[in-house]
Design goal:
The complex is a heterodimer of chains A (141) and B (286).
Chain A (H helix, E strand, L loop, with lengths): L1 H17 L9 H4 E17 L6 E8 L2 E8 L3 H6 L12 E9 L5 E8 L5 E3 L3 H14 L1
Parallel strand pairs in A: 3-5
Antiparallel strand pairs in A: 1-2, 1-4, 2-3, 4-5, 5-6
Chain B lengths: L1 H20 L12 E2 L2 E2 L3 E4 L20 H4 L24 H9 L25 E5 L5 E5 L5 E5 L14 E7 L2 E7 L5 E3 L5 E3 L2 E2 L6 E2 L4 E8 L5 E9 L8 E9 L17 H11 L4
Parallel strand pairs in B: 6-7
Antiparallel strand pairs in B: 1-2, 3-4, 3-15, 4-5, 5-6, 7-8, 8-13, 9-10, 11-12, 13-14, 14-15
Classes of the chains: A alpha+beta (141), B alpha+beta (286).
Chain lengths: 141, 286
């Protein structure tokens, strides 16, 4: 119990200090809410090639304010297998992401893929999120 | 197990017969085992020097941060240095970062945080490493420290897709010398104790010497006669922080124990108090 409190505090403090979502390895359902889809359109600020999940940081204009969102991608190895490299997503790139928001309401989300304004799509190597997105599409049809 | 033993005896016998029937060419060292015509580097290896404390010549000294707790047990042993020419030819503009490291030795050292050591540091840490070499295939190097490892891709030097802590290694044989070129050594953002995030670089030793992700590290592994030590060198070229390429060299010794093997040194839990101790104190935990 004590440990649990401590680690929650530790993660909170890390987030506060760094602004980086250094969340641990987890299932989709514990972290993200399939009933909170969100469309994010903005400019890439940074791409973090970290394990166990990569993170795309984007500045999104929502309701007249700029918000910094972090979109979770697959593990670096999964992205490399799909042909990603250091030049895939330079800072300043405009992208569109249909994602599922974090359960805690933070500006974090998980997405199956990103899209560019010209319509090109790139898989983020998130198998579970892909399944959730496919289910959401079926439900919408 | 028995099958493997029998097999390797047969291979050794065949190799001996081959050696006996063909005069060894001038560039081939005699008296070393071979795989696919190349020296057999398989084994558990370890340096016997103090390069990981400081690549440059240094005197013995008290531990810079924990002498009160550890006394002489934590002290730094002296070292003659392993750099050809004695010192690292830093450019003036590299000195500010070097001084930052020197002011924060151990606290900012990736080794203390159990981050991956990068190349060439992994080779000369206080832990053994193992080389796994097959027949005409890539070569695997596994390090006891942090269970680090790297694949040496036996192919032309390429363009690594991203920077990583251990870089990307490409190998080629130059006669009987394994030449490994490592590029894209870069940790990216690194978390320091108390949560500060900085753009990281690869530390070369506990004294804070470093290279950047612009570096090309060229290592040479030459199995010496008798097969129980490797003459090792690493040339580091990084025009962004050095005035010229520079080279370290040292022998690496085969661990001779019958049961020589890598044990686990999964050190993440050992670094938790260093990295997150401030949070534990805030909790008032004991």
């Amino acid at each position: 119990m004590h440990m649990k409190k401590l680690s929650a505090a530790a993660i909170g403090a890390v987030l506060a200090v760094t602004g980086v979502g250094a969340a641990a390895h987890h299932s989709f359902a514990t972290e993200f809410d399939r009933n909170k889809p969100v469309r994010l359109e903005g400019k890439v600020v940074m791409f973090e090639w970290v394990n166990p999940h990569s993170w795309i940081h984007i500045d999104v204009n929502r309701g007249g304010r700029t918000e910094r969102w972090r979109v979770e991608g697959g593990a670096p190895s999964a992205l490399l297998r799909r042909g990603w490299n250091r030049n895939s997503l330079p800072a300043g790139t405009d992208i569109i992401v249909d994602a599922f928001q974090a359960r805690d309401g933070d500006t974090r989300a998980s997405a199956a893929e990103i899209r560019f304004p010209n319509g090109r799509e790139l898989s983020l190597g998130n198998p579970t999120t892909e399944a959730v997105a496919a289910a959401a599409r079926r439900a919408g049809n | 197990m028995r099958g493997i033993k029998t097999f390797s005896t047969a291979v050794a016998a065949a190799a001996l017969m081959a050696l006996g029937s063909v005069p060894a060419s001038a560039e081939h060292h005699e008296g070393v085992e071979r795989i696919d015509g190349k020296p057999n580097l398989n084994g558990v290896w370890q340096v016997m020097n103090n390069a990981n404390w400081n690549l440059e010549p240094h005197s013995a000294a008290a531990n810079p941060v924990a002498d009160r707790l550890l006394g002489a047990i934590g002290a730094i042993p002296a070292g003659l240095g392993v750099i050809e020419g004695g010192e690292i030819p830093y450019k003036e503009e590299a000195m500010e970062r070097l001084q930052q490291h020197r002011d924060n030795v151990i606290y900012h050292d990736p080794e203390a945080a159990c981050y991956l050591p990068g190349i060439p540091r992994a080779t000369y840490m206080d832990h053994p490493f193992q080389i796994i070499q097959g027949n005409n295939d890539d070569i695997l190097m596994v390090y006891e420290y942090a269970s680090a490892n790297r694949v040496v891709h036996m192919e032309e030097v390429g363009i690594p897709p991203i920077d990583t802590w251990m870089g990307t290694s490409y190998g080629q044989w130059d006669g009987d010398t394994l030449v490994v070129t490592t590029l894209a050594l870069g940790p990216g953002l690194v978390k320091l104790p108390a949560g500060e995030m900085v753009e990281g670089v690869t530390w070369l030793d506990r004294a804070g010497n470093y290279l950047t992700n612009h570096a090309t590290v060229t290592e040479r592994f030459t199995l010496a006669e008798g097969g129980n030590h490797i003459m090792y060198s690493a040339t580091i070229d990084d025009p962004t922080i050095y005035t010229r390429p520079w080279t370290i060299s040292m022998p690496i010794y085969r661990r001779m124990e019958e049961n020589a093997q890598l044990l686990e040194f999964k050190c993440v839990p050992f670094s938790e108090n260093l990295l997150y101790g401030d949070l534990i104190e805030e909790q008032g935990a004991d």
